[in-house]
Amino acid sequence: MDESRLTSTSMNEVLERFKAGKPAALSRGISIVENQRDGFEAFLHAAMQTKLQGRRIGLTGPPGAGKSSLVALLTEFYISQGERVGVLAVDPTSPQTGGALLGDRIRMNDIAIDENVFIRSMATRGSLGGLAATTKEILDLMDCFGFDRLLAETVGVGQTEFEIARAVDTVVVVLVPESGDSIQAMKAGLMEIADIFIVNKADRPGSDKLVKEVRQAIHLRSGHNFKGFAGHHGPVIEVHDTAELNELDDELGWEPLVLKTNALTGEGIQELTQAIESHEEWIQGSGELQKRRKLRTEVRIREVMHRELVNRSIASRTVNKILTKRVEAVLSGHATPYSVAMELVDQFLEKDQ
Amino acid sequence: MSEERRVRVLVAKPGLDGHDRGAKVIASAFRDAGFEVIYTGLHQTPEMIVSAAVQEDVDVVAMSVLSGAHMTLFPRVKELLGQAGADNVLVTGGGIIPKDDVKELEDMGIGRLFGPGTSTKESIAYVKEWFAIHAVSR
Ligand SMILES: Nc1nc2c(ncn2[C@@H]2O[C@H](COP(=O)(O)OP(=O)(O)O)[C@@H](O)[C@H]2O)c(=O)[nH]1
Ligand SMILES: [Mg+2]
Predict the structure, then answer these.
(1) Quick one: angle between helices A40-47 and A11-19, nearest 10?
(2) Ligand 1 pocket residue status of A65, Cβ below 6 Å
(3) What Å distances lie between residue A167 and A35, A69, A160, A226, A244, CA to CA?
């Protein structure tokens, strides 16, 4: 790799241009974080010297549901209100080849060259540092760049999407009449994260039926919860635990809204923006937003600690030296992987400060 | 600590014609080769292409040009990329382009241009080779 080019893209220079508001520097900054280039944490630290205050909306749902089309329409609306909008669209990496075909921009051509819009596509890649962690870091970086509004599009409703969903203020779950059957299976999970349900492709048969089904499911769920369970929780928050947040939802009583849209005609979009606004008013007024941000920050610190500890222990000479030796002990039956692992963790925490 | 960096490619289909089969074929082939491919659809203007290339921080812009407008489109994208400070992006592509034009474009700093019927393997190998030598840290 050409040395002179490396310096011309040095992180300090990127940082300076980032702070001066240059989109190309935001773009490079995102790559630095995504690639976990050496020093990316210092980069994030330096970039994150401003308060995070962008309003964050997450859209999730099955492939082809119309998420990108809806993102484009929402963006159009927000820029017409004078806002600056950052879009992050995440799509799966092919596990076989490591490649990805990112086609979300196809639906966003109408907003693509507006100077108040920045769109970034991202592939899920391997588990380097954890997809959810990286996605949240990129959202933070975009936030610090100064967007009023951040829209995050993710596919499906796996564990990762749950975590990403928790990095936004308002979660919009997008369904289509065709996805009826699969919804049965994921209903529980969807109920947990959705603040707003969209039944898109309202022009297709079955959309009214789906709206009804989702509403019924919501009512079943809230009826269930109001039987009540005590909410005593310590200050320690598990990284992967979303239960606390859900309970906050329940206590304060936000019932997910269910709306129909047609992203081809724009029908229902105004209602969607109003629904998002009332959810925003609710999370602000109820104190929920503060709670979510606090939890989010705690989770973030833990995730960064987790990544740092893992990386340091992998690089640790003490660990590697003992590990190589102790493998023999396990093979000869004098130790187990468990005793060795415990020994290593103790050694590591004592010696590798 | 970082794993092998992925090649990021913008596959763009400029111009008014409605044929994006070629672009889609190369986009899937690039994906199968392990690249991260951003595909933006039909009717892209040079401004849209460059704006996407910058926001996506791609290494390569690959354009499929069948309209005969190659002598304006390729240089224009190259020029706009330069203005945007993204002059280390490879601009390459394919289409029906006469030999003399290919020569002229290459002299302007455009990368290799592939004629119709070129095997996708050839363009993949070319991008990989370029990337190994010229890619900057991102
Ligand atoms: N009939 C119909 N098609 C739609 C609607 N919304 C999106 N589509 C189409 O559905 C396909 C997938 O849309 P896209 O926004 O890319 O979905 P995503 O995968 O969830 O991001 C595209 O061909 C859209 O044009 C809708 O409301 N009605
Ligand atoms: Mg999409």
Answers:
(1) 20
(2) yes
(3) 20, 22, 11, 26, 14
User: What are the structural domains of chain B?
Assistant: 8-137 (3.40.50.280)
pTM: 0.88
How many Å lie between the centroid of ligand 2 and the Cα of residue A177? 17
Q: What is the pLDDT of residues B27-86, one digit of tens each?
A: 999 999 999 999 998 889 999 999 999 999 999 999 999 888 999 999 999 999 999 988
Closest to A327 measured CA to CA, from A315, A317, A340: A340
Query: If you measure from the C-alpha of residue A122 to the centroid of ligand 1, how many angstroms do you get, rounded to a whole number?
Result: 19
- Taken in order of first residue, the domains within chain A and their CATH numbers are 1-49 (no CATH), 50-285 (3.40.50.300), 301-352 (no CATH)
Which position has the token pair 């209100």? Answer: A81
A116 touches chain B (CB under 8 A): no
Per the DSSP assignment, residues forming a β-bridge with A262 are A267
- Alpha-carbon distance of A148 to A145, in angstroms, equals 10
What average pLDDT score do residues B9-20 get? 87
Cα–Cα distance measured from residue A330 to residue A338, given in angstroms and rounded to the nearest whole number: 9
Of A102, A166, A158, nearest in space to A300 by CA: A166
Instruction: For the beta carbon of residue A256, count every other beta carbon within 10 angstroms.
Output: 23
**Tokens 């590697």 belong to which residue?**
A320
Closest residue, chain A, to B131 (C-alpha): A1
Residue A97 neighbours by CB distance under 10 Å = 12
Chain A residues lying within 8 Å of B138, measured CB to CB: 9, 28, 31-32, 35, 37
A269 pocket-lining for ligand 1 (C-beta < 6 Å): no
Sheet holding A196-199, edge to edge: A117-123, A85-91, A149-155, A55-61, A170-175, A196-199, A257-260
Identify the bridge partners of residue A123 per DSSP, sorted by sequence position: A91
Return the closest-CA partner of residue A133 out of A34, A215, A1.
A34
Residue of A nearest to B132 (CA): A1
Q: A170-184, A336-350, B60-74: which has the minimum mean pLDDT?
A: A170-184
